[in-house]
Amino acid sequence: QEQLVQSGGGLVQPGGSLRLSCVASGFTLDYHAIGWFRQAPGKEREFVGAISWSGGSTDYADSVRDRFTISGDNAKNTVWLQMNSLKLDDTAVYYCAATRFLRATSQLSLYSYWGQGTQVTVSS
């Protein structure tokens, strides 16, 4: 069964860091771009960032640029989202997703596979 399995997340204080992992199971991440999205209560799912299938390019939402970093290792079939300098507004359920559109894209409808989501709570 093709799926993305997420881990990481949890509770952190403002200014802290967390790292989320996304592992592909049942398929290879080769020739897939990976995106990260998040959804806060009462809000629509929004783009956080994405990495191209080769890892050569990334794209980030303005709200997280310079604080979040996406990296990947195709040999491990894994992509990570490193989140630093976390803010209260970063609280949300975070999802990773895979698309055969090879470039990093923010277009949610292009993503075919989705992780189960993981809660990130930033609170003092």
Main sheet overview: 7 strands, mixed
Order of helices and strands: EEEEEEEEEEE
Instruction: Indicate the radius of gyration in whole angstroms.
Output: 13 Å
Query: From the helix content, strand content and strand pairing, which structural class follows?
Result: mainly beta
In helices, the fraction of residues equals under 10%
Number of helices: 0
Poorly predicted runs are none
What average pLDDT do the residues reach? 95
Basic shape:
globular
Count of beta strands: 11
| Strand content range | over 45%
Quote the distance from N terminus to C terminus: 40 Å
Describe this entry's structure for a reader.
This protein has 124 residues and is mostly beta strands. The chain is 0% helix and 48% strand. The chain has strands spanning 3-7, 10-12, 18-25, 33-39, 46-51, 58-60, 68-73, 78-83, 92-99, 113-114, 118-122. The strands form two sheets. Strands 2, 4, 5, 6, 9, 10 and 11 form a seven-stranded mixed sheet that branches. A four-stranded antiparallel sheet has the order 1-3-8-7, with no helix packed on it. The chain is globular and about 40 Å long. The mean pLDDT is 95.
Summarize the structure.
This protein has 124 residues and is mainly beta. It has no helices and eleven strands.
Fold topology:
Blueprint (H helix, E strand, L loop, with lengths): L2 E5 L2 E3 L5 E8 L7 E7 L6 E6 L6 E3 L7 E6 L4 E6 L8 E8 L13 E2 L3 E5 L2
Parallel strand pairs: 2-11
Antiparallel strand pairs: 1-3, 3-8, 4-5, 4-9, 5-6, 7-8, 9-10, 9-11
